[in-house]
Design goal:
The chain has about 675 residues and is mainly beta. The chain is about 10% helix and about 50% strand. The chain starts with a helix and ends with a strand.
Length: about 675
């Protein structure tokens, strides 16, 4: 997770060009044999001494930091170091002998001649090695700087499982350039520098890498009409600490995917109905609600290109946005970013979790016509951070009620925002459908977190009764049981996934409520997850009461994976972002990233696919995932919660999706 205050501002100003998706071309570069590759080598000052090679070039006089190295404040040239040209495999390990070798000058410069038959490629690397440290850079252009940025980007490609020799070299060049545009300050050593990079640009790089980490795939398999649904957690702050916001966004949309050629999806946005609410104030107990909805008339259709690769990743490049409402003395800038979604098996079902941030500025009336029409970049007001769980599901051609008969696993998250209080809920149970779209929800338990109007928090659970209902479902899978026959959800083309997105609110009455439900069709026997690898897409919220009344949002970054060693145990590796208001609603936002590597967890899977995953931490607490895998365990839906040591009630609730990427 990036630090919002730096990333959003730097991106909004500088990062306005797009990363292109993988094409059909391989990784062969445009460099002829015998040409030279050159660049500069730099590292944090605390690491330079360990990378410098002793010898005649170790001259005892001062040097000036080159301009390129100074792009990240605090980097210094690596002088007199051996630079080796090597090939690496997809795990980053050296393959074969060193292909060529040279040394850096006292200013960190180097020049190296490519051997005969060697061309630019994603798996061709220049490397500097020292005591317990190495810095590498992919040789994807003739000017190759070796720095913490180049090493960080290479590591992210390796984490993603990319075929390094198949990367399109121009994509890697653009990504390195994007990262270098961020406002970064080096740590005292390499490990601290990598921590800085993870904090500032980790989530950004992971999504960018995902979009270019494999060749384009056959798009004909995913064309069709799609439903789109999303649910977002958000926190806003004011730089002066005077006010803050806890917020939700929810929407249901319609899209069409068309074949734009191998690796290219022509995506047409047709319409979208949305709802959002802000609970704003200096503290929860003295907050007020602002709820609004927008029903799309379908007159704002737009077509744009997405990319689809052989790893099953659908990527859409978002543009830099500047939003000025005209009647308010403030506006927003949102940086360009790539939205990525993981395909479930080979189906028309995709899940994504986006990490977004925007910066709020004052506006001016530049032509004195009474309308605010321009951002004042010197008048920054605050930051806004969003974590959004989103799904695309291809519509059925002619859904029958019999397609839905059977048992489904249900996970639910609810939020009630009232003037002066927040209530969060989650539940897991089963739903059985018979013909006629008639369903019965089993009895269960609903977990709850409540911060009331006195600022006190309570945690607990309540039993929920069994309940019967009937759905109104159109032939294209749209569930139309909302007010005046409006859509509240949809059924996927194979009836294997059902989504409900419901909201209501009244500003006069001072409340807004959001209900997100996901159903997955269950099998007749215990699904097997042993030996599988799952991408984790998770977002949750934590609330405390009392003196601090802290609020936090947690979310997994895109390259966070659960590897199942068996049906009862596994390991999680990846990065989790935390966005926190330590002193309550009105406090400023703080951002951190927690890195996990092979953290062990336990799994319990019932015969109907009901699953509990318990991930213990070093504080004696545990994160719990409770939900259901589908029949072939290609994906699962879960509620999430955190139990502190010796606690019986959750102080954090959210939703998660696991998507099998074993064969990707």
């Amino acid at each position: 997770m990036h630090n919002v205050k730096k990333l959003a501002l730097a991106s909004a100003i500088a990062s306005v060009f797009a990363v292109t998706g993988c094409s059909n071309s391989g990784s062969s570069g445009d460099s002829a044999s015998g040409e030279t590759v050159s660049g500069k080598a730099s590292a944090p000052s605390g690491t330079v001494a360990k990378l410098n090679q002793p010898g005649a070039l170790e001259i005892a006089f001062s040097f000036i930091v080159p301009e390129a190295a100074a792009a990240i404040t605090g980097l210094e040239p690596i002088k007199g170091a051996d630079v080796e040209l090597i090939r690496v495999d997809d795990d980053g390990n050296q393959v074969g002998d060193v292909l060529a070798k040279t040394s850096t000058s006292i200013t960190g410069d180097y020049t190296l001649t490519l051997p005969t038959g060697v061309s630019l490629a994603g798996n061709l690397v220049v490397r500097i090695t020292g005591a317990n440290h190495q810095l590498r850079a992919q040789v994807v252009e003739k000017n190759v700087d070796i720095s913490p940025v180049s090493e960080f980007v290479l590591r992210k490609f390796i984490e993603s499982g990319a075929d390094l020799d198949q990367l399109v070299v121009t994509d890697v060049v653009k990504l390195n350039g994007k990262v270098e545009e961020f406002d970064l300050t080096a740590g005292a050593n390499l490990e601290q520098m990598f921590d800085v990079l993870e904090q500032e640009v980790g989530a950004f790089v992971e999504t960018e890498v995902a979009s270019v980490s494999a060749n384009g795939a056959d798009v004909s398999n995913i064309v069709g009409d799609y439903n789109n649904a999303a649910f977002a957690f958000a926190l806003h702050d004011n730089d002066d600490g005077s006010n803050g916001t806890f917020a939700h966004d929810m929407w249901l949309g319609d899209f069409t995917f068309a074949n734009g050629g191998t690796g290219t999806v022509n995506m047409t946005y047709l319409s979208e109905d949305s709802a959002w609410a802000n609970l704003s104030g200096t503290a929860i107990e003295n907050s007020s609600i602002d709820y609004d909805t927008e029903l799309d008339d379908g007159n704002s259709q737009e077509t744009f290109d997405g990319s689809f690769n052989t790893l099953g990743i659908l990527a859409v490049q978002g543009e830099f946005e500047e939003d000025i409402e005209g009647d308010e003395p403030y506006g927003w800038r949102f940086p360009a970013m790539t939205y990525v979604f993981q395909q479930v098996a080979d189906t028309g079902l995709f899940f994504g979790l986006t990490h977004e941030a925007g910066v709020r500025y004052g506006t001016i009336d530049s032509d004195n016509d009474g309308t605010y029409d321009a951002i004042d970049p010197d008048d920054k007001h605050g930051d806004e951070v969003f974590r959004t769980l989103e799904v695309f599901a291809r519509k059925p051609a002619n859904l029958s009620d019999t397609a839905m008969t059977g048992d489904y696993g249900r996970v639910y998250f609810g939020s009630r925002l009232s003037s002066g209080s927040i209530e969060l809920f989650s539940a897991n149970n089963t739903v059985t459908f018979s013909t006629g779209f008639n369903g019965t929800v089993s009895a269960g338990t609903e977990r709850e977190i409540i911060v009331n109007s006195s600022g006190a928090a309570s945690y607990g659970d309540q039993p929920t009764p069994s309940e019967s209902f009937t759905l109104t479902v159109a032939a294209d899978g749209t569930i139309t049981d909302g007010p005046e026959g409006g859509a509240i959800g949809f059924v996927s083309e194979d009836a294997g996934y059902v989504d409900f997105s419901e909201s209501a609110g009244d500003n006069t009455a001072g409340f807004a409520e959001f209900d997100k439900t996901m159903l997955v069709k269950l099998g007749d026997s215990t699904p097997s997850v042993s030996g599988k690898k799952y991408r984790l897409l998770m977002a949750s919220a934590h609330l405390e009461g009392g003196a601090t009344s802290s609020i936090a949002l947690f979310a997994s970054q895109f390259n966070t994976f659960l590897t199942m060693d068996s049906n009862s145990a596994g390991k999680v590796s990846g990065n989790f972002s935390e966005i926190r208001k330590e002193q309550g609603l009105g406090d400023n936002i703080e951002a951190t990233v927690h890195q996990e590597s092979d953290l062990a967890f336990n799994i319990e899977i019932d015969s109907n696919g009901g699953t509990t995953i318990s991930v213990p931490d070093t504080d004696g607490g545990a994160t719990k995932f409770e939900g259901f895998f589908n029949a072939d365990a290609s994906f699962g839906v879960f509620t999430t919660g955190y139990l502190e040591k010796d606690a019986v009630d959750y102080n954090e609730l959210g939703l998660a999706v696991l998507v099998d990427v074993t064969q990707k």
